[in-house]
Amino acid sequence: MNLKTLLIAALMGLGFSQAALADRVQLDKVVATVNDGVVLQSEVNKVISRVKQQAKEQNTQLPSDNTLRIQAIDRLVDQSLLLQLAERMGLEISDAQLDQTLANIASEQGATIADLRKSIEATGESFKAYREEIRQEITISQVRRANVDRRIYINPQEIANLQTILEQQTGQSEEYDIGHILVKVPSKASPEELEDARERANKVIEFLNDGKDFKRIAIASSSGAKALDGGQLGWMGINEMPSLFAEAVKGKKKDDIIGPLRSGAGFHILKVQDIRGRQVVETTEVRSRHILIKPSIILSEEKARSMLAGFVKDLRAGNADFAELAKEHSEDPGSALKGGEYDWTDPTTYVPAFRDTLLSLDKNEISEPFRSTFGWHIVQLLDKRIADKTDFAKKNRAHGILYNRKFQEESLRWMNEMREQANIDVFPTE
User: CA–CA distance from 309 to each of 179, 206, 283, 367 (Å)?
Assistant: First the structure.
């Protein structure tokens, strides 16, 4: 091949390279700048493509392509601002955290990460790129929450007001099966007669709290109109009850004994025999105590475990006192001085190893030594109960509604402030 041929070939190659480069530049041209970052046309195209695909699957009508382009650029500008802020904050999502999120996504679909990978790659997309998109989404979510949370304040009165509104909306469906006993008081009763009636009412309550049959006591003791029916008033809503009863019954639980309530007729005693139309939230609570030993350079893992095994042996033989051992040896500053004891607690708030060990025990049973993220433990289950968390759940619901409402409002304000402080240029289409 002569020099001329080589020159022509080189020039042709250069021409092809320039043409290919021009094509790539055309595909990935900058459509917006965000501070030192850029938004590329290919990114815009990807967002629009996904929106169109989703609309097709859901049979949704879309606006014009130009409107979609504006919306896509808007989203990508916000994304760029948030990722830049994450970088300034030093916020990074580790591979372990990312893998856990992917495992959760797969689990929600009844699959594994391997299954998720296959489904992503079956669409023609790169699983590696998908992973990085999820990493970005987690990063953006954490940046937004970290910066918006500090702008949100919810005072207790707001929660109480919303709880009242929610109860008014849902409380109409609540009905109570009420048992009623009246200890009658004469209309012109002397102080002695009044005190005697009060004592009799308190005695009735004492019998009921001891588990005596309500109907039997009502038949024997009540002066109410339904005495011979065992004091059974039947099912009633709050608005159907006398106001004295309604105020006392509201928010009570099944089997609660209420009273004595004073009226012109005498002293009333109520029993909430059942409730319907109310969402009751119950949870298991445990009372426990534990001893924590933390391994160190001086104290090996095996030595820590062996030390606790010795405690267990002595405790089961009755040769040691749990509280004294905890005070002397436990390295949990929150419980050691109290003999290792924790008050009534929802066990799901504990780390998994502690929770699972505790829930596997019978009352007063002491566990074998076990390892958690904090160190080596032994734990004793002191008691277990079912707690009514309905009021707590209602309060949480009201707080959640207020938080979500304020988060949306503050998030929008904060993002607008971010945009106002940023250098953003969006280039017109050709």
Answer: 54, 47, 32, 10
Partners of residue 104 on adjacent β-strands: none
- CB of 323 closer than 8 Å to CB of 329: no
Q: Tell me the three state secondary structure of residue 274.
A: strand
Best CA proximity match to 348, nearest among 359, 340, 337 = 359
Neighbouring C-beta atoms of residue 199, cutoff 10 Å: 13
State if pTM tops 0.70: no
* pLDDT tens digit sequence for 202-224: 999 999 999 999 999 999 889 88
Taking the mean position of all CA atoms in its chain, how far away is CA 289?
26
Q: What is the dihedral of CA 393, 398, 401, 404, to 10 degrees?
A: -90
Closest CA to 252 of 173, 160, 178, 156: 178
pLDDT tens, position by position, 249-294: 987 889 999 999 999 889 999 999 998 877 677 788 999 999 999 9
**Structure token digits, residue 102:** 């992917």
> Which residue, 86, 275, 269, is CA-closest to 176?
275
The Cα 223–Cα 266 span in angstroms is 9
Task: Kindly give the parts of the chain with pLDDT less than 70.
Answer: 1-27, 169-173, 279, 430
Q: What is the rounded (10 degree) CA torsion for 10, 11, 12, 18?
A: 110
- What does DSSP assign to residue 366? B
On whether the CB atoms of residues 288 and 382 are closer than 8 A, the answer is yes
